[in-house]
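Study this pair:
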Amino acid sequence: METWRLLAWTTGLLLLWGALVSLLGYDLSPFSIISAAAFGMLGFYLSNKLTDRLNDN
């Protein structure tokens, strides 16, 4: 997955997550935003690498 697409997906998911958090009334701290972005990007990266590896076989 290209970097710009990874960042676009992560931004979209963070916006969706932020909207859900504000609707449900949870606290939204800077640490939770950064950790969600980091784990989201890591998950997208690993899933892309796994998909590439499975498609090569």
Remarks:
- Residues 18 and 50 are 28 Å apart (CA to CA).
- Residues 3-56 form one domain.
